[in-house]
């Protein structure tokens, strides 16, 4: 039974139907890098494919097409949320009677106790806790932000290859499953602005300093014969990429090393 005050306040508010929190409702939010106006190079498309787009997973169709087509657009900046008297518990942050979800629910015994921190930087995002690619792109870059306190990885139990990538990037964070933090800092840092681009260059330089071999050809991993995340014209895409020198890998038919 969790008897922490922050958890009990959440339980009480949940009974009243108000319990799911956000950066704005659990903490004090401020901008640390402003929005920017920028464009970019368009992505590569097969003929006639852009006109077929009927929906996207996030935001609206037009905003996603602005990115894909390299149109001039507003790119959001970086925001910081300072959360007072926070409880970190099994991938969620409890504060002000609310629960901020980060990690997916895990069918594991709950942690019973943990350390106390005066201050800490929770360098985990919700998308980074759910998808390894976002952890690699967003959360690793966030670790380079100039925020006070120890780096805390709130995405318990963490990613299988996280330690290896952390060693290549020169990054480390303390995995936290249960902790009380008097002043917890979280950031919204998932947008691709100039501040983040500079941190990407830093991470790239750190990897190069290890003497890591230069990358080989671009590789495309075919979706295979399953049903998850397939798309109808993959064969056309593969033909286009192969003609441009991309190596096509079909993992289901490749020998296991």
What does this 3D model show about the protein?
- With 257 residues, the chain is an alpha/beta fold.
- The radius of gyration is 21 Å and the shape is globular.
- A hairpin with a 2-residue loop joins β4 (78-89) and β5.
- The strands form three sheets. Strands 1, 4, 5, 6, 7, 8, 9 and 10 form an eight-stranded mixed beta sheet that branches. A two-stranded antiparallel sheet has the order 2-3.
- The chain is built from eight helices and twelve strands.
Gist?
By secondary structure, the chain is an alpha/beta fold. The chain contains 8 helices and 12 strands.
| β-sheet strand percentage | 15-25%
Biggest sheet statistics: 8 strands, mixed
SSE string, helix = H, strand = E? HHEEHEEEEEHHEHEEHEHE
Helical element count? 8
Radius of gyration (CA) equals: 21 Å
Structural class: alpha/beta
Instruction: Summarize the amount of helix as a percent range.
Output: 25-40%
Low-confidence stretches: none
């Amino acid at each position: 039974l969790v008897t922490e005050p922050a958890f009990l306040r959440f339980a009480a508010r949940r009974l009243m139907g108000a319990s799911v929190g956000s950066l704005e409702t659990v903490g004090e939010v401020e901008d640390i890098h402003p929005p920017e106006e920028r464009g970019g190079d368009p992505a590569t498309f097969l003929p006639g494919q852009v006109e077929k787009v009927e929906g996207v997973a996030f935001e609206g169709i037009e905003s996603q097409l602005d990115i894909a087509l390299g149109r001039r657009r507003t790119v959001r900046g970086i925001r910081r949320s300072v959360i007072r008297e926070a409880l970190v518990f099994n991938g969620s942050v409890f504060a002000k009677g609310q629960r901020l979800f980060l990690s997916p629910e895990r069918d594991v015994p709950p942690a019973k106790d943990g350390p106390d921190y005066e201050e800490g930087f929770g360098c985990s995002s919700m998308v980074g806790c759910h998808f390894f690619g976002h952890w690699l792109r967003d959360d690793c870059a966030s670790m380079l932000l100039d925020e006070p306190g120890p780096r805390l990885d709130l995405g318990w139990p963490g990613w299988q290859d996280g330690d290896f990538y952390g060693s290549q990037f020169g990054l480390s964070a303390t995995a936290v499953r249960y902790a009380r933090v008097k002043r917890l800092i979280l950031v919204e840092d998932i947008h691709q602005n100039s501040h983040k681009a500079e941190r990407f260059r830093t991470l790239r330089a750190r990897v190069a300093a290890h003497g890591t071999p230069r990358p080989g050809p671009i590789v495309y991993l075919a979706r295979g014969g399953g049903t998850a995340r397939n798309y109808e014209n993959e064969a056309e895409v593969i033909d286009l990429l192969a003609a441009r020198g991309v190596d096509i890998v079909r993992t289901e038919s490749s020998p296991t090393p």
